[in-house]
UniProtKB/TrEMBL annotation:
This is Sphingomyelin phosphodiesterase-like. It holds the Pfam family Metallophos. Keywords: Glycoprotein, Hydrolase. The keyword Zinc does not apply. One of its GO terms (cellular component) is extracellular space. Residues 23-189 form the Calcineurin-like phosphoesterase domain. It comes from Hirondellea gigas. One of its GO terms (molecular function) is acid sphingomyelin phosphodiesterase activity.
Length: 209
């Protein structure tokens, strides 16, 4: 969430300007340091509004491609020059190889957010985020890579739909051998949550920070 929380004052133009200014400040004060971003729920206009791209009638009128384009444009200030993030973005998600054998996957968990009411138009994997994540993890597994997953809203946090979180836990269970870390924000406090094997409820398979 780079945008201030005075939601009664936000506009699309204002949010874009804030995203740009925050990126400039990070680039100025942390020169040469790679920074890997994830889209927060306050970045959109209206706030929390992330229509599923696969519903054309909704996306054409209310979509947030303007935001995804702005985020990618600004993130290029501090992502590695050869990063594939700009070309690989999908529904506000991206993936990039940090070093040989290590990949970061940034997912847009606003598609599991209970206050993103656009998900009522398509409640099964809105944005195809989970499908896309599985495809990226399969590729990483095939290439012998380890993965960190980053996002804004933690899938096990109370603001995320339980069913979406359960399906995410199925993904974590399947790929627990290569997912070495998960890092999120949103809750404004330090939290640690455990994923348990969906087949064996007492077996921990992943940690959300």
């Amino acid at each position: 969430d780079s945008v201030p929380h005075d939601l009664w004052r936000i506009t699309r133009r204002g949010n874009s300007a804030v995203v740009s200014e925050v990126a400039k400040m990070i680039h100025k004060h942390f020169p040469g340091v790679p920074v890997y971003g994830a889209i927060g729920n306050h970045e959109s206009f209206p706030r929390d509004s992330f229509p599923p791209p696969e519903v054309p009638s909704v996306w054409q009128r209310f979509g947030v491609q303007w935001l995804y384009d702005a985020m990618v444009r600004e993130w290029q200030r501090f992502l590695p020059p050869d990063s594939i993030a700009p070309s690989a973005r999908f529904a506000g998600c991206y993936t990039l190889t940090v070093s040989p054998g290590f990949k970061i996957i940034s997912i847009n968990t606003n598609y599991c957010y209970k206050f993103n009411w656009w998900t009522l138009f398509k409640s099964v994997d809105p944005g195809h985020v989970l499908r896309w994540l599985v495809s990226e993890l399969l590729e990483a597994e095939s290439n012998g890579e380890y993965v960190h997953i980053i996002g804004h809203i933690a899938p096990l946090y109370e603001d995320c739909y339980e069913e979406w979180g359960h399906q995410f836990s199925r993904v974590v269970t399947r790929f627990s051998g290569i997912i070495r870390g998960q890092f999120y924000g949103h809750c404004h406090r330090d939290e640690v949550k455990l994923h348990f094997d969906v087949r064996e409820s007492k077996l921990p398979v992943g940690v959300e920070y």
